Amino acid sequence: MSVIILGIETSCDETAAAVVVDGVQIKSNIIASQVAVHAKFGGVVPEVAARKHLELINQVIIAALTKAGLTYQDINAVAVTCGPGLVGALLVGVAAAKALAYALPSVALIGVNHLEGHIYANFLERPDLDFPLLCLVVSGGHTDLVLITHHGSYQLLGGTLDDAAGEAFDKVARALGLGYPGGPLISRLARQGNAQSIPLPRAYLAADSLDFSFSGLKSAVLNYLNQAKQKNIAVNTADVVASFQQAVVDVLVDKTLLAAKKHHVKTVLLAGGVAANELLRQQLRQVGKDAGLMITYPPPIFCTDNAAMIACCGYYKYLRSEFAPLTLNAVPRLSLGKG
Ligand code: KG4
Ligand code: ZN
Q1: Cβ atoms 116, 316 nearer than 8 A
Q2: pTM of the entire structure?
Q3: What percent of the chain has pLDDT over 70?
Q4: Which residues are registered as beta bridge partners of 20?
Q5: How many A from CA of 71 to the centre of ligand 1?
Q6: Is residue 69 left, alpha or beta, with left meaning phi > 0 and alpha meaning psi from -120 to 50?
Q7: Is the CB of 117 under 6 A from ligand 1?
Q8: Per-residue model confidence as pLDDT tens digits over 245-298
Q9: Is residue 234 domain-resident?
Q10: Do residues 86 and 171 both lie within one domain?
Q11: Is residue 194 part of a domain?
């Protein structure tokens, strides 16, 4: 019998609900983006995000069920992001999911870690992926290298010591007055620039380190812009963003390859909003191919926040009977492997 999961995602600035059958058939994938609301502030305002989620959550859930041609009674479980993320934002999704599970005794409740959700975006199209897997999770809040030995088992090999890759994209875009979120704007503009034009640092840390650091690179870009301003030199914005993007991608790709080699992993996944980046996808696939690795990543729409990935992850938890009690709570700093 099929397992039908309603996924709910409200950890940051997308209010999302999706219906996924057996972890692969996406019956609906509704994403109400708040980007326009937050863009005028240059970033996500947590209080505004929580209020927007509250306004949108019921409509989004109903839209997901309607699009799927299903009713609440057809659902086997509701899988909801319970962390990490903004606490007020997370609480809206968690409360909605708990209300459904409480009102409908046949509907199980499943708590999903947002990062685990990002990883499972890969399983939506590739349920046959062979373990062990290495995943580079790159988003607005995380830059993590994760070793996955089987479903639900995660070992953090490295992470960022300061800014996440997506955060660096957003901060550089803000400094250049490009808008929010910075990643898609930078990657589009970078196509017109010369990535070799401005020498920028790449922080590799210790030779075998799998940790990341992007704050030095971000500061180097800001210094370059300040010096140009002081000297009254015109800045070619496309060259700046192309050089910046190349520096981020070089480090991400090199460290991912190093991790695969160190841990003898042959299949490498990308996940998270920055995984939508064209240059990262191309460069990792090229270099990975040369190293005999299988590189895979979700379509861009499933890289950024969505609820289909949460439903997909929920499906594997459902198979393992990993259900949450009705006391499930939002945990803003939830780490991978817990929840
Ligand atoms: O996964 P996500 O939607 O939300 C978080 O969990 O953080 O990731 C959002 C981040 C933002 O920092 C955004 O600028 C970045 O992903 N991003 C990109 C691209 N699309 C989104 N960064 C680089 N290139 C892109 N094409
Ligand atoms: Zn995310």
Answers
A1: no
A2: 0.97
A3: 99
A4: 5, 26
A5: 33
A6: left
A7: no
A8: 999 999 999 999 999 999 999 999 999 999 999 999 999 999 999 999 999 999
A9: yes
A10: no
A11: yes
Same domain, 100 and 165: no
Q: Which residues contact 226 (CB under 8 A, 6 or more apart)?
A: none
Cα–ligand 2 centroid distance for 229 (angstroms): 35
- Angstrom distances, CA of residue 160 to CA of 71, 100, 110, 141, 224: 42, 37, 28, 9, 23
Tokens (6 digits) for 84: 């990490």
Give kind and range of the element (H or E) at residue 91: helix 87-103
Q: In total, how many domains does the chain have? A: 2
Binding site membership of 169 for ligand 1 (Cβ less than 6 Å): yes
Do 134 and 272 fall within a single domain?
yes
Cα atoms in the Cβ-side hemisphere of radius 13 Å centred on 75: 33
- Cβ 11 vs Cβ 91: under 8 Å: no
Average pLDDT over the chain, rounded to an integer? 97
Structural Rg of the chain based on CA atoms = 20
- From CA 150, how far away is CA 319, in angstroms rounded? 14
pLDDT value of residue 42: 86
Which residue, by CA, sits nearest to atom 22 of ligand 1? Answer: 183
Q: What is the spatial distance between Cα 19 and Cα 308, in angstroms, rounded to a whole number? A: 7
Which of 90, 139, 171, 303 maximizes ligand 1 atoms within 8 Å of its Cβ, making it the mutation to test the pocket? 139
Is the CB–ligand 1 distance for residue 298 below 6 Å? no
| pLDDT for the residue numbered 337 | 65
The β-bridge relationship of strands 267-271 and 133-138 is parallel
> Which residue's alpha carbon is nearest to atom 10 within ligand 1?
140
Cβ pair 271, 122 in contact under 8 A:
yes
Looking at the structure, tell me whether residues 171 and 224 fall in a common domain: yes
Would you say residue 339 lies in a domain? Answer: no
Q: Beta partners for 330?
A: none
3-state secondary structure (DSSP) of residue 26: strand
Residue 269 is inside which H or E element, if any? strand 267-271
State residue 332's pLDDT score: 97
pLDDT in tens, 144-199: 999 999 999 999 999 999 999 999 999 999 999 999 999 999 999 999 999 999 99
Measured CA to CA, the distance from residue 294 to residue 276 in angstroms comes to 18
